[in-house]
Amino acid sequence: MAGLFGSLTIATSGLTAARTGLDVTGQNIANVNTTGYVRRRMDLAEIAPNASMQAGRGVEVLQIRALRDHYLETQLAREQGGRASDETTLAGLRGVDAMIGLPGESLDVQITSFFDAFSLLASDVTSAPAREGVVRAGQALGDAFNALSTRLTDAQAVHNQSIVAAVSEFNSLATRVAQLNARIVTGGVDVEALRDERTTALAGMAELANISLIERPDGAVDVTVSSGHALVVGANAYPVTATPEPPSGFVSLHLADFDVTGKVTGGRIGALIDLRDTTIPSYQAAVDRLAYDIATQVNAVHATGVDSQGGAGGPFFTPPASVTGAAATLSVSATVAADAGMVAASGTAAAGDNQVARAIAALRESRVMSGGSATAAEAWANIAYQVGSDISAAQASLGTREQIVKQLQRLRDQQSGVSFDEEAANLIRYQRSYEASARYFTTILDTLDSLMAMVR
Protein backbone atom coordinates (compact mmCIF):
# COMPACT_ATOMS: atom_id res chain seq x y z
CA MET A 1 0.00 0.00 0.00
CA ALA A 2 2.71 2.46 0.98
CA GLY A 3 4.51 1.69 -2.29
CA LEU A 4 1.41 2.34 -4.38
CA PHE A 5 0.71 5.59 -2.57
CA GLY A 6 4.32 6.55 -3.28
CA SER A 7 3.64 5.79 -6.94
CA LEU A 8 0.71 8.19 -6.80
CA THR A 9 3.12 10.83 -5.50
CA ILE A 10 5.42 10.19 -8.47
CA ALA A 11 2.50 10.47 -10.86
CA THR A 12 1.32 13.69 -9.19
CA SER A 13 4.78 15.23 -9.44
CA GLY A 14 4.89 14.37 -13.14
CA LEU A 15 1.49 15.96 -13.68
CA THR A 16 2.59 19.06 -11.78
CA ALA A 17 5.83 19.37 -13.76
CA ALA A 18 4.05 18.93 -17.09
CA ARG A 19 1.33 21.42 -16.16
CA THR A 20 3.97 23.93 -15.04
CA GLY A 21 5.82 23.41 -18.30
CA LEU A 22 2.62 24.11 -20.22
CA ASP A 23 2.09 27.28 -18.15
CA VAL A 24 5.64 28.47 -18.85
CA THR A 25 5.21 27.80 -22.55
CA GLY A 26 1.87 29.61 -22.59
CA GLN A 27 3.40 32.58 -20.79
CA ASN A 28 6.17 32.78 -23.37
CA ILE A 29 3.72 32.65 -26.25
CA ALA A 30 1.43 35.23 -24.66
CA ASN A 31 4.32 37.68 -24.26
CA VAL A 32 5.92 37.23 -27.66
CA ASN A 33 5.20 40.90 -28.46
CA THR A 34 5.78 42.31 -24.98
CA THR A 35 8.61 44.87 -24.94
CA GLY A 36 11.46 43.75 -22.69
CA TYR A 37 10.06 40.26 -22.04
CA VAL A 38 12.70 37.58 -21.60
CA ARG A 39 11.88 33.97 -22.40
CA ARG A 40 11.28 31.75 -19.37
CA ARG A 41 12.55 28.21 -18.91
CA MET A 42 11.57 25.59 -16.36
CA ASP A 43 14.37 23.66 -14.64
CA LEU A 44 13.53 20.17 -13.35
CA ALA A 45 15.33 17.73 -11.06
CA GLU A 46 14.58 14.20 -9.97
CA ILE A 47 13.58 13.56 -6.38
CA ALA A 48 16.05 11.00 -5.12
CA PRO A 49 14.83 7.77 -3.50
CA ASN A 50 14.99 7.43 0.28
CA ALA A 51 15.37 3.64 0.27
CA SER A 52 17.77 1.30 -1.49
CA MET A 53 15.13 -0.58 -3.47
CA GLN A 54 13.12 2.52 -4.39
CA ALA A 55 13.21 3.82 -7.97
CA GLY A 56 12.76 7.41 -6.90
CA ARG A 57 10.10 9.80 -5.71
CA GLY A 58 9.28 11.68 -8.87
CA VAL A 59 10.30 15.08 -10.21
CA GLU A 60 10.36 18.58 -8.79
CA VAL A 61 10.35 22.01 -10.39
CA LEU A 62 13.54 23.70 -9.23
CA GLN A 63 12.88 27.11 -10.69
CA ILE A 64 11.39 29.09 -13.52
CA ARG A 65 14.18 31.33 -14.75
CA ALA A 66 14.52 34.03 -17.34
CA LEU A 67 17.12 33.36 -20.04
CA ARG A 68 18.82 36.69 -19.52
CA ASP A 69 22.23 37.58 -20.99
CA HIS A 70 23.42 40.66 -19.11
CA TYR A 71 26.42 41.14 -21.40
CA LEU A 72 24.30 41.19 -24.55
CA GLU A 73 21.73 43.47 -22.93
CA THR A 74 24.46 45.91 -21.88
CA GLN A 75 26.07 45.88 -25.31
CA LEU A 76 22.74 46.34 -27.05
CA ALA A 77 21.75 49.23 -24.79
CA ARG A 78 25.10 50.92 -25.47
CA GLU A 79 24.76 50.57 -29.24
CA GLN A 80 21.15 51.71 -29.15
CA GLY A 81 22.37 54.79 -27.32
CA GLY A 82 24.92 55.35 -30.07
CA ARG A 83 22.22 54.92 -32.69
CA ALA A 84 20.00 57.47 -30.92
CA SER A 85 22.96 59.86 -30.83
CA ASP A 86 23.59 59.44 -34.57
CA GLU A 87 19.89 59.85 -35.38
CA THR A 88 19.70 63.05 -33.33
CA THR A 89 22.88 64.42 -34.88
CA LEU A 90 21.68 63.63 -38.39
CA ALA A 91 18.32 65.29 -37.77
CA GLY A 92 20.05 68.41 -36.43
CA LEU A 93 22.45 68.57 -39.37
CA ARG A 94 19.63 68.19 -41.86
CA GLY A 95 17.94 71.14 -40.18
CA VAL A 96 21.10 73.21 -40.69
CA ASP A 97 21.32 72.03 -44.28
CA ALA A 98 17.80 73.31 -44.89
CA MET A 99 18.86 76.69 -43.49
CA ILE A 100 21.91 76.79 -45.76
CA GLY A 101 19.79 76.02 -48.80
CA LEU A 102 20.69 74.73 -52.23
CA PRO A 103 23.44 76.28 -54.38
CA GLY A 104 22.02 79.17 -56.36
CA GLU A 105 19.08 79.52 -54.00
CA SER A 106 20.63 80.78 -50.77
CA LEU A 107 23.15 83.32 -49.48
CA ASP A 108 25.36 82.86 -52.52
CA VAL A 109 22.64 84.53 -54.61
CA GLN A 110 22.76 87.66 -52.42
CA ILE A 111 26.56 87.73 -52.52
CA THR A 112 26.53 87.50 -56.32
CA SER A 113 23.79 90.11 -56.64
CA PHE A 114 25.75 92.50 -54.40
CA PHE A 115 28.87 92.41 -56.54
CA ASP A 116 26.74 92.49 -59.72
CA ALA A 117 25.20 95.74 -58.48
CA PHE A 118 28.65 97.33 -58.20
CA SER A 119 29.51 96.05 -61.68
CA LEU A 120 26.38 97.72 -62.99
CA LEU A 121 27.28 100.93 -61.18
CA ALA A 122 30.78 100.83 -62.70
CA SER A 123 29.22 100.96 -66.15
CA ASP A 124 27.60 104.32 -65.30
CA VAL A 125 28.69 105.95 -62.06
CA THR A 126 26.36 108.88 -62.69
CA SER A 127 23.26 106.63 -62.64
CA ALA A 128 21.09 107.31 -59.59
CA PRO A 129 19.11 104.05 -60.10
CA ALA A 130 22.40 102.10 -60.18
CA ARG A 131 23.42 103.68 -56.88
CA GLU A 132 20.02 102.78 -55.42
CA GLY A 133 20.52 99.27 -56.70
CA VAL A 134 23.84 98.99 -54.86
CA VAL A 135 22.22 100.11 -51.62
CA ARG A 136 19.34 97.66 -52.02
CA ALA A 137 21.73 94.81 -52.83
CA GLY A 138 23.78 95.65 -49.74
CA GLN A 139 20.65 95.70 -47.58
CA ALA A 140 19.48 92.38 -49.06
CA LEU A 141 22.88 90.87 -48.33
CA GLY A 142 22.78 92.13 -44.75
CA ASP A 143 19.23 90.83 -44.31
CA ALA A 144 20.29 87.41 -45.62
CA PHE A 145 23.19 87.20 -43.18
CA ASN A 146 20.97 88.42 -40.34
CA ALA A 147 18.28 85.84 -41.12
CA LEU A 148 20.75 82.96 -41.35
CA SER A 149 22.38 83.96 -38.08
CA THR A 150 18.96 84.15 -36.41
CA ARG A 151 17.99 80.71 -37.72
CA LEU A 152 21.20 79.17 -36.39
CA THR A 153 20.65 80.81 -33.00
CA ASP A 154 17.05 79.61 -32.97
CA ALA A 155 18.24 76.09 -33.75
CA GLN A 156 20.50 76.22 -30.70
CA ALA A 157 17.54 77.34 -28.59
CA VAL A 158 15.40 74.48 -29.93
CA HIS A 159 18.12 71.96 -29.08
CA ASN A 160 18.40 73.52 -25.63
CA GLN A 161 14.70 72.96 -25.00
CA SER A 162 15.05 69.40 -26.27
CA ILE A 163 17.83 68.87 -23.73
CA VAL A 164 15.56 70.04 -20.92
CA ALA A 165 12.79 67.67 -22.04
CA ALA A 166 15.20 64.75 -22.45
CA VAL A 167 16.71 65.32 -19.00
CA SER A 168 13.22 65.22 -17.48
CA GLU A 169 12.57 61.89 -19.22
CA PHE A 170 15.98 60.64 -18.11
CA ASN A 171 15.24 61.48 -14.47
CA SER A 172 11.86 59.74 -14.64
CA LEU A 173 13.51 56.57 -15.91
CA ALA A 174 16.19 56.76 -13.19
CA THR A 175 13.49 57.09 -10.54
CA ARG A 176 11.68 54.07 -11.99
CA VAL A 177 14.90 52.01 -11.93
CA ALA A 178 15.39 52.90 -8.26
CA GLN A 179 11.81 51.87 -7.46
CA LEU A 180 12.24 48.58 -9.28
CA ASN A 181 15.54 47.98 -7.46
CA ALA A 182 13.73 48.30 -4.14
CA ARG A 183 11.06 45.78 -5.16
CA ILE A 184 13.56 43.34 -6.64
CA VAL A 185 15.69 43.34 -3.48
CA THR A 186 12.69 42.43 -1.33
CA GLY A 187 12.07 39.37 -3.53
CA GLY A 188 8.71 37.86 -4.41
CA VAL A 189 7.10 35.87 -7.15
CA ASP A 190 7.22 38.80 -9.59
CA VAL A 191 10.99 39.39 -9.50
CA GLU A 192 11.63 38.30 -13.10
CA ALA A 193 8.83 40.52 -14.41
CA LEU A 194 10.34 43.41 -12.45
CA ARG A 195 13.75 42.65 -13.97
CA ASP A 196 12.19 42.78 -17.44
CA GLU A 197 10.70 46.18 -16.68
CA ARG A 198 13.98 47.43 -15.26
CA THR A 199 15.88 46.29 -18.35
CA THR A 200 13.48 48.30 -20.51
CA ALA A 201 13.94 51.38 -18.29
CA LEU A 202 17.73 51.03 -18.38
CA ALA A 203 17.64 50.73 -22.17
CA GLY A 204 15.64 53.94 -22.26
CA MET A 205 18.26 55.67 -20.10
CA ALA A 206 21.06 54.39 -22.35
CA GLU A 207 19.33 55.85 -25.40
CA LEU A 208 19.30 59.24 -23.69
CA ALA A 209 22.85 59.34 -22.29
CA ASN A 210 25.93 57.20 -21.81
CA ILE A 211 25.60 55.26 -18.56
CA SER A 212 27.50 52.53 -16.74
CA LEU A 213 25.88 49.72 -14.78
CA ILE A 214 27.11 47.96 -11.65
CA GLU A 215 25.35 44.74 -10.61
CA ARG A 216 24.91 44.38 -6.86
CA PRO A 217 24.79 41.04 -5.03
CA ASP A 218 21.29 41.78 -3.78
CA GLY A 219 19.95 42.04 -7.33
CA ALA A 220 19.87 45.83 -7.55
CA VAL A 221 21.68 47.78 -10.26
CA ASP A 222 23.64 50.98 -9.66
CA VAL A 223 23.78 53.48 -12.53
CA THR A 224 26.46 56.13 -13.12
CA VAL A 225 27.47 58.51 -15.89
CA SER A 226 30.86 58.03 -17.54
CA SER A 227 32.51 60.36 -15.02
CA GLY A 228 31.48 58.00 -12.23
CA HIS A 229 28.86 60.29 -10.70
CA ALA A 230 25.93 58.28 -9.39
CA LEU A 231 22.47 58.42 -10.93
CA VAL A 232 20.96 55.44 -9.12
CA VAL A 233 22.31 53.69 -6.04
CA GLY A 234 20.08 50.88 -4.90
CA ALA A 235 16.66 52.31 -4.16
CA ASN A 236 17.86 55.92 -4.36
CA ALA A 237 17.81 58.08 -7.50
CA TYR A 238 19.82 61.27 -7.91
CA PRO A 239 18.26 63.57 -10.53
CA VAL A 240 20.19 65.55 -13.10
CA THR A 241 19.33 69.24 -12.84
CA ALA A 242 19.22 71.50 -15.90
CA THR A 243 20.28 75.00 -14.84
CA PRO A 244 20.03 78.00 -17.22
CA GLU A 245 23.33 79.86 -17.52
CA PRO A 246 23.75 83.55 -18.46
CA PRO A 247 23.92 85.22 -20.88
CA SER A 248 22.52 82.69 -23.37
CA GLY A 249 20.08 81.01 -20.99
CA PHE A 250 21.28 77.62 -22.23
CA VAL A 251 21.18 74.95 -19.54
CA SER A 252 24.11 73.17 -17.99
CA LEU A 253 23.66 69.76 -16.39
CA HIS A 254 24.54 69.08 -12.77
CA LEU A 255 24.60 66.09 -10.46
CA ALA A 256 24.63 67.50 -6.94
CA ASP A 257 27.33 70.21 -7.11
CA PHE A 258 29.15 68.74 -10.12
CA ASP A 259 28.80 70.07 -13.64
CA VAL A 260 28.48 66.99 -15.86
CA THR A 261 27.49 68.77 -19.09
CA GLY A 262 30.75 67.80 -20.74
CA LYS A 263 30.57 64.26 -19.38
CA VAL A 264 27.35 63.41 -21.17
CA THR A 265 28.76 62.47 -24.55
CA GLY A 266 26.44 59.74 -25.78
CA GLY A 267 22.79 59.15 -26.46
CA ARG A 268 20.24 61.71 -27.48
CA ILE A 269 21.19 64.20 -24.76
CA GLY A 270 24.88 64.03 -25.66
CA ALA A 271 24.10 64.63 -29.34
CA LEU A 272 21.86 67.59 -28.51
CA ILE A 273 24.58 69.13 -26.33
CA ASP A 274 27.12 68.68 -29.12
CA LEU A 275 24.81 70.26 -31.68
CA ARG A 276 24.04 73.18 -29.38
CA ASP A 277 27.53 73.86 -28.07
CA THR A 278 29.89 72.70 -30.81
CA THR A 279 28.45 71.91 -34.22
CA ILE A 280 26.10 74.84 -34.78
CA PRO A 281 28.51 77.37 -33.18
CA SER A 282 31.19 76.20 -35.62
CA TYR A 283 28.87 76.94 -38.56
CA GLN A 284 27.89 80.24 -36.98
CA ALA A 285 31.55 81.16 -36.60
CA ALA A 286 32.18 80.45 -40.29
CA VAL A 287 29.19 82.56 -41.33
CA ASP A 288 30.34 85.36 -39.01
CA ARG A 289 33.82 85.23 -40.52
CA LEU A 290 32.39 85.52 -44.03
CA ALA A 291 30.17 88.48 -43.06
CA TYR A 292 33.08 90.17 -41.30
CA ASP A 293 35.43 89.69 -44.24
CA ILE A 294 32.92 91.01 -46.77
CA ALA A 295 32.16 94.05 -44.61
CA THR A 296 35.78 94.92 -43.88
CA GLN A 297 37.04 94.33 -47.42
CA VAL A 298 34.24 96.35 -49.02
CA ASN A 299 34.62 99.13 -46.42
CA ALA A 300 38.38 99.28 -46.99
CA VAL A 301 37.97 99.84 -50.72
CA HIS A 302 34.91 102.09 -50.34
CA ALA A 303 36.80 104.39 -47.95
CA THR A 304 39.37 105.15 -50.70
CA GLY A 305 36.76 106.60 -53.03
CA VAL A 306 34.63 109.71 -53.32
CA ASP A 307 30.85 109.96 -53.35
CA SER A 308 28.61 111.66 -55.93
CA GLN A 309 29.25 115.04 -54.31
CA GLY A 310 33.01 114.63 -54.31
CA GLY A 311 33.21 113.91 -50.59
CA ALA A 312 35.47 111.26 -49.10
CA GLY A 313 33.92 107.82 -48.97
CA GLY A 314 33.11 106.36 -45.58
CA PRO A 315 32.19 102.80 -44.67
CA PHE A 316 29.60 101.14 -46.91
CA PHE A 317 28.62 98.64 -44.24
CA THR A 318 28.34 99.45 -40.57
CA PRO A 319 31.80 98.39 -39.35
CA PRO A 320 31.46 95.12 -37.37
CA ALA A 321 32.81 95.35 -33.84
CA SER A 322 34.31 91.86 -34.05
CA VAL A 323 34.09 88.64 -36.00
CA THR A 324 31.73 87.14 -33.44
CA GLY A 325 28.21 88.33 -34.20
CA ALA A 326 29.17 89.95 -37.50
CA ALA A 327 26.48 88.09 -39.45
CA ALA A 328 23.75 89.09 -37.01
CA THR A 329 24.62 92.80 -37.25
CA LEU A 330 25.67 93.20 -40.88
CA SER A 331 23.90 96.20 -42.39
CA VAL A 332 24.45 99.06 -44.77
CA SER A 333 25.70 102.12 -42.86
CA ALA A 334 22.99 104.57 -41.90
CA THR A 335 24.63 107.34 -43.97
CA VAL A 336 24.64 105.34 -47.20
CA ALA A 337 21.19 103.84 -46.54
CA ALA A 338 19.74 107.33 -46.12
CA ASP A 339 21.33 108.73 -49.30
CA ALA A 340 22.46 106.52 -52.19
CA GLY A 341 24.54 109.47 -53.39
CA MET A 342 26.96 108.68 -50.57
CA VAL A 343 28.04 105.52 -52.36
CA ALA A 344 31.68 106.06 -53.28
CA ALA A 345 32.04 104.75 -56.83
CA SER A 346 34.92 106.96 -58.03
CA GLY A 347 38.54 107.14 -57.04
CA THR A 348 38.74 110.82 -57.91
CA ALA A 349 36.29 113.63 -58.45
CA ALA A 350 36.79 113.35 -62.21
CA ALA A 351 33.63 112.82 -64.20
CA GLY A 352 33.07 109.21 -65.19
CA ASP A 353 35.74 107.81 -62.88
CA ASN A 354 34.55 104.33 -61.81
CA GLN A 355 37.68 102.77 -60.32
CA VAL A 356 36.26 102.21 -56.81
CA ALA A 357 33.07 100.62 -58.14
CA ARG A 358 35.21 98.36 -60.32
CA ALA A 359 37.52 97.55 -57.41
CA ILE A 360 34.61 96.52 -55.19
CA ALA A 361 33.09 94.47 -58.03
CA ALA A 362 36.49 92.81 -58.49
CA LEU A 363 36.40 91.63 -54.86
CA ARG A 364 34.09 88.91 -56.15
CA GLU A 365 37.06 87.12 -57.70
CA SER A 366 39.65 88.16 -55.13
CA ARG A 367 40.91 85.67 -52.56
CA VAL A 368 40.56 88.03 -49.64
CA MET A 369 38.16 85.95 -47.52
CA SER A 370 38.98 83.33 -44.88
CA GLY A 371 42.43 84.76 -44.22
CA GLY A 372 43.20 85.34 -47.90
CA SER A 373 42.52 81.76 -48.99
CA ALA A 374 39.15 82.03 -50.75
CA THR A 375 36.78 84.25 -52.65
CA ALA A 376 33.43 85.11 -51.09
CA ALA A 377 31.68 82.46 -53.20
CA GLU A 378 34.31 79.87 -52.29
CA ALA A 379 34.06 80.72 -48.61
CA TRP A 380 30.32 80.19 -48.73
CA ALA A 381 30.75 76.97 -50.71
CA ASN A 382 33.15 75.73 -48.04
CA ILE A 383 30.50 76.27 -45.37
CA ALA A 384 27.89 74.42 -47.41
CA TYR A 385 30.38 71.65 -48.18
CA GLN A 386 31.23 71.24 -44.48
CA VAL A 387 27.57 70.80 -43.60
CA GLY A 388 27.13 68.26 -46.39
CA SER A 389 30.28 66.42 -45.34
CA ASP A 390 29.09 66.25 -41.73
CA ILE A 391 25.74 64.88 -42.89
CA SER A 392 27.47 62.17 -44.93
CA ALA A 393 29.63 61.21 -41.96
CA ALA A 394 26.57 61.05 -39.69
CA GLN A 395 24.69 58.91 -42.22
CA ALA A 396 27.62 56.50 -42.51
CA SER A 397 27.94 56.26 -38.74
CA LEU A 398 24.21 55.67 -38.36
CA GLY A 399 24.23 52.97 -41.04
CA THR A 400 27.06 51.13 -39.30
CA ARG A 401 25.40 51.49 -35.93
CA GLU A 402 22.09 50.14 -37.21
CA GLN A 403 23.82 47.03 -38.55
CA ILE A 404 25.49 46.45 -35.19
CA VAL A 405 22.18 46.92 -33.36
CA LYS A 406 20.44 44.45 -35.69
CA GLN A 407 23.15 41.83 -35.13
CA LEU A 408 22.99 42.26 -31.37
CA GLN A 409 19.20 42.08 -31.45
CA ARG A 410 19.39 38.81 -33.38
CA LEU A 411 21.83 37.40 -30.83
CA ARG A 412 19.62 38.54 -27.97
CA ASP A 413 16.53 37.07 -29.61
CA GLN A 414 18.33 33.75 -30.02
CA GLN A 415 19.20 33.78 -26.33
CA SER A 416 16.25 35.55 -24.73
CA GLY A 417 13.52 35.95 -27.34
CA VAL A 418 10.47 33.79 -27.80
CA SER A 419 10.58 31.34 -30.71
CA PHE A 420 7.22 30.05 -31.90
CA ASP A 421 8.84 26.88 -33.30
CA GLU A 422 10.55 26.09 -30.00
CA GLU A 423 7.44 26.85 -27.96
CA ALA A 424 5.30 24.71 -30.28
CA ALA A 425 7.70 21.81 -29.71
CA ASN A 426 7.51 22.39 -25.96
CA LEU A 427 3.72 22.35 -26.08
CA ILE A 428 3.74 18.92 -27.68
CA ARG A 429 6.42 17.66 -25.30
CA TYR A 430 4.62 18.79 -22.14
CA GLN A 431 1.27 17.67 -23.48
CA ARG A 432 2.61 14.16 -24.06
CA SER A 433 4.28 14.21 -20.67
CA TYR A 434 1.03 15.21 -19.00
CA GLU A 435 -0.91 12.51 -20.84
CA ALA A 436 1.68 9.87 -19.86
CA SER A 437 1.67 10.96 -16.21
CA ALA A 438 -2.16 10.93 -16.21
CA ARG A 439 -2.14 7.43 -17.69
CA TYR A 440 0.35 6.33 -15.03
CA PHE A 441 -1.82 7.93 -12.34
CA THR A 442 -4.90 6.10 -13.68
CA THR A 443 -2.99 2.80 -13.74
CA ILE A 444 -1.97 3.18 -10.10
CA LEU A 445 -5.56 4.00 -9.15
CA ASP A 446 -6.80 0.90 -10.99
CA THR A 447 -4.18 -1.16 -9.21
CA LEU A 448 -5.27 0.26 -5.85
CA ASP A 449 -8.91 -0.58 -6.67
CA SER A 450 -7.95 -4.14 -7.50
CA LEU A 451 -6.01 -4.41 -4.25
CA MET A 452 -8.91 -2.99 -2.23
CA ALA A 453 -11.28 -5.44 -3.91
CA MET A 454 -9.07 -8.34 -2.82
CA VAL A 455 -9.11 -7.08 0.78
CA ARG A 456 -12.89 -6.79 0.77
Q: Which keywords apply here?
A:
single chain, alpha+beta, 456 residues, 9 strands, 3-stranded antiparallel sheet, 4-stranded antiparallel sheet
Strand order of the largest sheet: 3-4-5-6
Number of strands: 9
Q: Helical stretch count?
A: 11
| Proportion of helical residues | 55-70%
Structural class, from secondary structure content?
alpha+beta
Low-pLDDT parts are none
Structure overview:
The protein has two domains: 104 residues; 330 residues, no CATH class. The longest helix has 59 residues. The mean pLDDT is 92. It has a four-stranded antiparallel beta sheet, with helices on one face. Strands 7-8-9 form a three-stranded antiparallel beta sheet, covered by helices on one side. The two termini are 15 Å apart. α2 runs parallel beside α5. Helices cover 62% and strands 9% of the residues.
State the gist of this model:
By secondary structure, the chain is of the alpha+beta class. Helices cover 62% and strands 9% of the residues.
Draw up the topology in text:
Layout: H1 2-30, E1 40-46, E2 59-66, H2 70-100, H3 107-123, H4 128-186, H5 191-208, E3 211-215, E4 221-225, E5 230-233, E6 236-237, E7 241-244, E8 251-255, E9 258-259, H6 267-302, H7 326-329, H8 334-338, H9 355-362, H10 376-416, H11 420-455
Antiparallel strand pairs: 1-2, 3-4, 4-5, 5-6, 7-8, 8-9
